């Protein structure tokens, strides 16, 4: 009998990327080689097989692009503090730990309780029960003192736009001059959720529609890079099987919306927002 779970609506969605990574790890041309995900899926008492469709592979491509942003940053700032906001059962720390960084994995209490049955804190790795919407964890992650890299993967999508904007402004004010990676989904993606096979299996729905990540700049962030599955970082594309590398480009050429509506974005926090003062926007370098 596996580990019984009791998770809130949005929290349950963490099982989708976990299963996606486990499936990927079972393939000879695996992208992430996340064999820990296979162990976790085997250890959790849940009907993972009900999850089907392109979102499983999509969560692997997404994770690899997030990894790419962080890898580049760590090459320049090996002693950074990384904060994964809404980490779920991600194993990114195991993939990217360089022996020098400090890492915080933050998620809601029920998710972290589940996480603690499989992972343990160590001198440079700490789990925090908290919310991306709150600021009561800010002091704790500032403590190591390194430059801060914030990332939030498939989390903010579940909140209304006003909540996301206020959260960005709060993060920007709390961590000025930091990097922030997050994903955005446009109308074409949000409008088709009910037809997505994985969303037929969970009750949570994404709420935040964002067609243009540069439009977030009044909320204390400056867009540095924006990518889609058709435009991953070259070093990341190199790790993808040809079917994804070519497939995404062909899809974009033939019928762009499914590929171009979902974006993976790298921001710099400016420390001021429309609520707290003018931004110092230089305009984004958009790779799309
Ligand atoms: C789709 S899962 C993504 C998990 C992980 N980032 C990944 O990609 O594997 C959404 C995650 O958001 C977390 N979450 C929901 N509301 C949150 C909040 N207010 N603060 C932090 N995390 C939250 C859930 O617990 C869940 O782990």
From TrEMBL:
Transmembrane segments: none annotated. InterPro entries: Ppm1/Ppm2/Tcmp, SAM-dependent_MTases_sf, TcmP-like. Keywords: Methyltransferase, Transferase. Coiled coil: none annotated. SUPFAM superfamilies: S-adenosyl-L-methionine-dependent methyltransferases. It comes from the Bacteria. GO terms for molecular function: methyltransferase activity. The keyword Methyltransferase applies. One of its GO terms (biological process) is methylation. This is Class I SAM-dependent methyltransferase.
